[in-house]
């Protein structure tokens, strides 16, 4: 196999223990997932999990890959966010409900000038969501429904009493535009954005150059089969990222955070 001359110049660093382990309740762990200070526009963080062979689900759901450490990090990121942005298929598949925030984290959020509980914002072109689902009935704050011009009136009629429905179309009235959706969130001072997918929505953010960072948990599992990747859109881009941190736990999970180079 041909090897370019540049391969000889590569340098590697062996990752290892650097100091005492950090417990999941230690506030220092939250510092690893702090958003940039003084945001005036949306900063979009993706949080996904994948097996070591690239599968984004096991048995059709992400929960099949998760462990205790991943759930702790998942909650930490939710507590840090102003809003949680997801695609409608993820809400249906994972049977989403509203965000649960313990008392101590509510105080921390208040100290940062945030609302006690972050709302969930759903991107849905069709607006086809069940108003009786847990997503609407088990929540302290009404969700946001980001839909398109073509279905806005119908979505407002069906969901307007249980959610805030927003027309987030751009130039196409039959599609939700990512940039327009983020502008709608920014108008509501929801700058710290956390997206939990799904794969198609994450891919759209990547293709539109709207993803600022990706926190990827690598589960020490092989799943094989036809599990999707964490991003499964039709377009392809090459976005350069830099590693911000890599953590691990006793179960062998890796917690990576990559930030887009600017």
TrEMBL record:
Keyword Hydrolase: no
Involved pathway(s): Cofactor biosynthesis; riboflavin biosynthesis
Transmembrane segments: none
Domain (Bacterial bifunctional deaminase-reductase C-terminal): residue spans on this chain: 43-254
GO biological process, one term: riboflavin biosynthetic process
Keyword Cell cycle included in the entry's annotation: no
Pfam family, one: RibD_C
Keywords, sorted A to Z: NADP, Oxidoreductase
Highest taxon above the source species: Bacteria
Protein name per UniProt: Bacterial bifunctional deaminase-reductase C-terminal domain-containing protein
Organism annotation: Mycolicibacterium celeriflavum
Lineage: Bacteria, Bacillati, Actinomycetota, Actinomycetes, Mycobacteriales
